[in-house]
Amino acid sequence: VEIYRHLAENVPRILCLGPSGCSSKEEQREEQREELACQLLLLAPLEWLLLGEDPAAGLPQLQENNQPSPLCGHVFKVGEPTYSCRDCAADPTCVLCMQCFLGSVHKDHRYRMTTSGGGGFCDCGDTEAWKKGPYCQKHTPTTNKDSEEVSKLLSSPLVNAAYYNYYCMLFNDEVHTYEQVIYTLQKAVNCSQKEAVSFATTVDRDGRKSVRYGDFQFCEQAKTVIVVIAADPLRVEVMHSSVVAHQCFALKALSWLGQIIQYSDGLRRILCQVGLEEGPEGVNSSLVDRLMLNDSKMWKGARNIYHQLLMNSLLMDFKYKKVFAIQFAKNYRRLQTDFMEDDHERVVSVTSLSVQLFTVPTMVSSLLRIRTQLLPRRAEYLQGRFQFDRYTAQQAFKFGRVQSLIGDLKYVLISRPSEWSVELREKFLEGLDAFLELLKCMQGMDPVVRQVGQHIEMEPEWEAAFTLQMKLTHIISMIQEWCSTDERVLIEAYRKCLSAVSQCHSGLPDGEQPISLSLAGHCVDTFMYQVSQDKVSIHLPVCRLLAGLHVLLSRTDVAARLPEQLPPPLLIELPLRCLVLCAQVLAGMWRRNGFSLINQIYYYHNVKCRVEMFDKDVIMLQAGASMMDPNHFLMIVLNRFELFHIFRFDLVQQNNTLIEEMLHLIITVIGERYVAGVGQVEPFDEVRREIIHQLSIRPMAHSELVKALPENGNKETGLERVIDSVASFKKPGVTGRGLYELRPEWNKHFNLYFYHYSRADQSKAEETQRKLRRQSGEDPALAPPVPPSLCPLFASLVNLLQCDVLLAVEGAVLQWAMEPRGGGWTESMLQRVLHLVGMALLEEQQQLENSNGEDDITFLYTAKITRHTSGSVLALLESLQNAPHLEVHKDMITWILKMVANIKTIRERSSSASTIRDKDKAERKRKAEMARLRREKIMAQMSEMQKHFINENKELFQQSLEELEASTSADAEHRCATIARTALRLTLRTS
């Protein structure tokens, strides 16, 4: 009680005794006086009370018995370098400060250096953060003693002194600019520009600054002026000087606590226990809970100091860190809400501590069991589909705050569970429900309509949606990785995602006008929709998550046990619209929509977004095509590309670029199999193929390859595992840089229509590969490479190559190419058709080579293109082989005709072999029948001779029968047999 009375009386006398707006020298002298008086009159008594003796003697003695935490605990400043080991770090958030890094084994490993955004925490000494080498030389633990029970500190109300001076306190916000604050202060408190700049700088650094000191009326007047001048008022309060004094002392006391616990691990544990101990009020009554829940009410300086104290105490002890993490998770929703209403940066919010708590593997399962959801409720923040162009400034600001919190999901999902409990499954699926609510709000956001007539007047907002997409990319991938570790979770997640896709489709306004399409003897029912006239969106996260889960199902044996499925045309509809939009933009049909749409298409294909956007759309088309009739699939594709009438009525008034892109999409759907679950490949093969095609463009430096490859959640590309097997490193000369060159044996894997190539990349790669083949004397035809086999769930994709609709399309393009001056075709169009023909021939050749007999072969492409009509694909190719205007394609056509001849040879050889096998089988059967007849004839002769012998030797048999009657039945049987044999021998001798 005496110490509290002492502080209540002396704090206002020592701190905050006058205005701070004086000269800098006087202000410095005042600060020095306050520091000295604070140390002698305020902190020194606390040290005497704590130690029971002179601090000068007690602190060194206390330090001798200190067992410092093995955790470093260094808090990073903005711009400070951080180091992460790519070989040993558990995840990318595990970093070291420079001092610990230089004293650790990781300096000799592969490491990544970055600059901190401030507020981070050095993970040296955390055994869960490092696979090996968790300690540097400085923090290697020596002995471990059990923590002793500590006493509890008491608290009592603060005694307020009555003073009559006040401060006009200006607080920091992230809304106003420096110029606005400086202008307002010059008008309100009548200060110079230099003083106003000093005020503004201090407010930005510390979070608040007093701009006037005096009686209440004097300060209130300044406050009124500040509020009136600014259109958006600055935050300013009139505060009693004693309150300000006690607040300043509280900060000094927190800093002092942070220093004093460095002397003894026992003091640190005492502070942790007292801070987490619940008060008489019950829930959320501990000092730590009260600090967290009032975080948004504090100014920046106060937040920084108590955050630092939490890091130096609670986060330095594994036991109390876990308790603190649980409390943090229980209050997470309240902390989220406070952060959204706050205007300070995330780095000075208590929510920024999530990276220290949610990334610990042993804590994740415990935190997930707490009945809380990391995502905000839809009713609170997610209302329908996001419409960023209609958001007010306040709505946009709050949504930006939500995005920073979504990143906490990434921390929780970094550590996948090794074992699933019933409760963990339940909580994960609850979280997935909330996440799907977020994705449904993104589904179809920022839709566009083709501008006709005049150019769009104002560029629509597009960056907010893609910023959100980029933040969610790794989270979506991690959710799929979690699902892949448990069969029951995967099935349930797939069902939930199917339901979400169904709900998204039910909300679409189109589909009310059914139409029927017919082509090449096939009919399909669909509905009226045109990308060039109706709304279309590039954002389809729900469909893409379903595509990712579908691939995971393909890699397991549960797909056959999952009866629920949406109609395939429904699955492909929205991804197909998006791909058609990209094709139409490339064809120049959307020029009047401005740069906004062009930028969206760019990021859709960009390496930062394509894994969960473009790639997943392709997978969804592959999934739908594998479930439906290939002719129906292609007819729907033609209709959505608005090209159906061209091939239906043999018109040539078409957009050539659209046909090229449509053919390219078919090549992609059939040929892109380097995804584990689509093709029978591993992730290693996928990375290797990416590197092969990047180096097929030109030799590249290491940094260029890293930028061209997508990163996973751990910021790894997999480059180092693959690069040495496919490329050789050419060391730099005196000037220049080292480059990787593709090894010649990997050129055969080059695919001209690799789906991650831009048109420019494709052109450069084609030129490079043709040059290499000319130099090496190889066949210059850029034939498609041999593809990997498809997984069973996607096996029917190959039927697209031999379906009637595709044959009709191929025949139409080849027929157009017969006319040298015809404007209805392009060389790129013909090149794509030849590539498709080559893919089909390779598929048939593989089936022939891998089959055991004629019954196993279901792919009959050569039979279909060799129909004895003038319009057959093969006949057209033979006609085009020597066409002078197609000299550039002669090599490819020649290769195709050789492949056809080779396949015919294989079929004839297999047919001949089959004929020989049939003849051998028939011959063996004939000989077996002859042997059987011969045996029957001999047996008949033997039977006849036995009868003849018995008739001629009746006396002998009569005597034998009498003897048999006197013997046992067994002996009788034996003797009968003996007599029979004797008779048989005699008969044979006489014959």
UniProtKB/TrEMBL annotation:
One of its GO terms (cellular component) is cytoplasm. It is an enzyme of class 2 (transferase). A zinc finger (UBR-type) spans 70-141. CDD domains: UBR-box_UBR2. GO terms for biological process: protein ubiquitination; ubiquitin-dependent protein catabolic process via the N-end rule pathway. The keyword Metal-binding applies. It comes from the Eukaryota. Its EC number is 2.3.2.27. The keyword Ubl conjugation applies. Pathway: Protein modification; protein ubiquitination. One of its GO terms (molecular function) is ubiquitin protein ligase activity. It catalyses: S-ubiquitinyl-[E2 ubiquitin-conjugating enzyme]-L-cysteine + [acceptor protein]-L-lysine = [E2 ubiquitin-conjugating enzyme]-L-cysteine + N(6)-ubiquitinyl-[acceptor protein]-L-lysine. InterPro entries: ClpS_core, E3_ELL-like, Ribosomal_bL12_C/ClpS-like, UBR-box_UBR2, UBR1-like, UBR1-like_WH, WH_DNA-bd_sf, Znf_UBR. SUPFAM superfamilies: ClpS-like (SSF54736), Winged helix' DNA-binding domain (SSF46785). Pfam families: ClpS, WHD_UBR1, zf-UBR. Keywords: Acetylation, Chromosome, Coiled coil, Isopeptide bond, Metal-binding, Nucleus, Phosphoprotein, Transferase, Ubl conjugation, Ubl conjugation pathway, Zinc, Zinc-finger. PROSITE patterns: ZF_UBR (PS51157). It is found in: Chromosome; Nucleus. Residues 70-141 form the UBR-type domain. Transmembrane segments: none annotated. PANTHER family: E3 UBIQUITIN-PROTEIN LIGASE UBR2, UBIQUITIN LIGASE E3 ALPHA-RELATED. Belongs to the E3 ubiquitin-protein ligase UBR1-like family. Ubiquitin ligase protein which is a component of the N-end rule pathway. Recognizes and binds to proteins bearing specific N-terminal residues that are destabilizing according to the N-end rule, leading to their ubiquitination and subsequent degradation. This is E3 ubiquitin-protein ligase. It comes from Hippocampus comes. The lineage of its organism: Eukaryota, Metazoa, Chordata, Craniata, Vertebrata.
